[in-house]
Task: inverse folding
């Protein structure tokens, strides 16, 4: 059984415009995927595709006007979307941990690093302060932070971006979670630090057997660090499967264009084909959401595209793909 | 950071600040076109007598000489004498300051005691009925003219309802003020165990303090709400939710992070409140520093006006100093 199984997740932003008309932005339109323990899933897509929203929907962190309209998110067999708020809150930070992309502003500016680590441990697992302190020092040490006992005394504003990101990962690991969701964990860090952070995450998954989901717009990150990938477009997963498979034989025209648009490929002479404006979530066309930008679009694309299995778990949602 | 270094740096800044304030008020008072000489000499004075008075006040000297003499005296702690009462300005100010401080202290305490919790509650549950009500109240407090509020209070609670004593000073006219310890009639009355005096002083305090509290609470509600809303929308509070921290811990985190900006705001608010208090003192014949300053400005009592403004400047410096000490002690980033 999968550790996390998301089925047909729909999230909409419901608001009123200036004319007091109800506006519905369909931000997630039937997201489905599953993730096993010990695996790293890379969720890629352009800005506004719904990558972060998928994570916040699963974790129950949506705020109005966003609202979940349907679907299930089974974590260890329990539906997170149907769970009472307090139960879900107890699960967050304990079994499902989140690492976000703005580490420096995400730490409580008025608490020392050590106190924040101790606080999250004791909030979820109880125990004495000194037990939590030992655990915190051990966790910081395991993340390659030199002199962890002294670092416990540091204030958030004294940390560099890379160090703050490590502290955030330490916070996430304090309660030995089953699932780690990293939302653009390396945005804003310089390249060598990016690699260090991602190496750290990968080693962690290999060593502890937890599952990780990395949300990124960087295909390089997916190629180097993930086992599986899911490509999102307009709030739906258009292609998913093992990373190697998808990169070798990208099936969906969007994935093909996305991979062709990386700087390395462009240098090799690929034509730049991902053109056109991002989809308008308030007025998605019927059928395939990519039809307006797709070079292979035809009349049948106004029909809902099928999920075509391509073997070894590789699936593409497109009329043009043959099994 | 070493509080000592902060204090030293502040002290270095205060000296030029006070010099500029002294120069500014000195010049403004003299350029205001008021001439106290005629008033002092009286309606039957001859031209020679007027010149004599002018010379005795050193007003016939060049303005720079006048300023030099004044500055020399201020440095020695001599603020000059009031031309109206012939008493040293410093003595008069020290005599009246406790009355004003008493009014402001209670007013700000009550105003902040109402404003902060109301603002916080409004921020924690935005757009609910309570929030709407608090916004209405704070708008009301903003829009009401100070003196009008005082007059209406007197009209309603003294004249119509007869709940409050008349707005004539700090204690009933039939009572002797208590022996001076702190200068506050209420506290001195309590110290002297004179219950009649203490209760009279308390009942005289109620209306003017209420006025100050209302005027002071309005912006505090608005600012506290805005500050708390910003903190609640911050990355670290959102992340605290994502970490599944218990609600009360998130709330405590939001409170601690709101405290510094709120205290800073109340500091600026207090310094601004001095002007408001003067008007309230006038309406209630309070006899404090504000009323003293206003009367001195109207009468053209130069030395008194200068002393009054200098005192206000010193008061503001002191308030900001207290705020800075608080911030330095509570804010790790202040270092």
Result:
């Amino acid at each position: 059984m999968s550790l996390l199984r998301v089925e047909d997740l729909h999230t909409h932003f419901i608001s009123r415009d200036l004319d007091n008309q109800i506006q519905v932005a369909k931000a997630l339109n039937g997201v489905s995927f599953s993730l096993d323990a010990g695996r790293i899933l890379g969720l890629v897509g352009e800005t506004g595709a719904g990558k972060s929203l998928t994570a916040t929907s699963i974790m129950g962190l949506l705020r109005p006007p966003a609202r979940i309209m349907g679907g299930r998110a089974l974590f260890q067999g329990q539906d997170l979307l149907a769970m009472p708020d307090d139960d879900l809150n107890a699960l967050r930070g304990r079994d499902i941990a989140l690492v976000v992309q703005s580490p420096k502003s995400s730490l409580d500016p008025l608490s020392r690093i050590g106190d924040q680590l101790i606080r999250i441990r004791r909030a979820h697992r109880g125990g004495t302060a000194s037990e939590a302190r030992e655990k915190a020092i051990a966790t910081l040490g395991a993340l390659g932070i030199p002199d962890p006992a002294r670092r416990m005394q540091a204030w958030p504003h004294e940390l560099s971006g890379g160090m703050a990101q490590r502290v955030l990962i330490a916070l996430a690991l304090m309660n030995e979670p089953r699932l780690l969701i990293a939302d653009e964990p390396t945005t804003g860090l310089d390249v060598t630090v990016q690699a260090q952070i991602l190496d750290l995450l990968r080693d962690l998954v290999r060593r502890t057997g937890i599952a990780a989901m990395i949300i990124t717009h960087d295909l390089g990150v997916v190629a180097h660090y993930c086992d599986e990938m899911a490509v999102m477009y307009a709030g739906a997963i258009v292609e998913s499967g093992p990373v190697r498979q998808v990169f070798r034989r990208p099936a969906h025209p969007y994935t093909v264009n996305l991979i062709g648009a990386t700087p390395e490929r462009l240098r090799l002479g690929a034509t730049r084909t991902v053109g056109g404006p991002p989809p308008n979530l308030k007025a998605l066309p019927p059928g395939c959401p990519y039809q307006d930008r797709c070079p292979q679009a035809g009349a049948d694309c106004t029909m809902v595209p099928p999920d075509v299995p391509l073997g070894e778990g590789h699936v593409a949602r497109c009329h043009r793909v043959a099994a | 950071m070493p509080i000592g270094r902060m204090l030293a740096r502040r002290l270095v800044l205060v000296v030029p600040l006070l010099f500029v304030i002294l120069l500014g008020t000195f010049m403004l008072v003299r350029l205001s076109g008021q001439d106290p000489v005629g008033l002092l000499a009286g309606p039957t004075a001859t031209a020679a007598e007027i010149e004599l008075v002018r010379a005795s006040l050193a007003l016939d000297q060049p303005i720079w000489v006048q300023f030099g003499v004044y500055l020399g005296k201020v440095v020695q702690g001599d603020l000059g004498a009031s031309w109206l009462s012939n008493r040293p300005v410093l003595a008069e100010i020290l005599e009246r300051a406790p009355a004003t401080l008493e009014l402001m202290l209670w007013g700000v305490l009550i105003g902040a005691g109402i404003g902060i919790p109301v603002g916080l509650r409004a921020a924690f549950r935005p757009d609910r009925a309570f929030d709407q009500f608090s916004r209405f109240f704070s708008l009301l407090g903003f829009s009401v003219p100070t003196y009008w509020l005082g007059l209406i209070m007197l009209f309603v609670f003294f004249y119509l309802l007869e709940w409050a004593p008349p707005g004539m000073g700090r204690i009933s006219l039939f009572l002797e003020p208590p022996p001076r310890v702190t200068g506050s009639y209420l506290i001195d009355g309590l110290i002297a165990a004179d219950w009649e005096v203490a209760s009279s002083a308390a009942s005289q305090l109620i209306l003017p303090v209420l006025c100050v509290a209302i005027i002071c609470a309005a912006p505090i509600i608005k600012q506290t709400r805005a500050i708390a809303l910003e903190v609640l929308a911050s990355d670290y509070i959102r992340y605290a939710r994502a970490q599944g921290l218990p609600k009360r811990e998130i709330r405590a985190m939001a409170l601690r992070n709101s405290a510094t900006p709120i205290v800073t705001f109340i500091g600026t608010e207090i310094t601004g409140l001095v002007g408001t208090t003067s008007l309230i003192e006038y309406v209630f014949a309070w006899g404090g520093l504000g009323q003293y300053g206003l009367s001195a400005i109207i009468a053209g009592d130069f030395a008194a006006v200068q002393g009054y403004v200098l005192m206000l400047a010193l008061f503001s410096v002191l308030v900001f100093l207290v705020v800075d000490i608080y911030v330095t002690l509570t804010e790790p980033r202040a270092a």
About this structure: The first strand of chain A starts at residue 4 and ends at 16. The domain at 4-107+159-317 of chain A is CATH 3.40.50.300 (Rossmann fold). Chain A has one domain: 4-107+159-317.
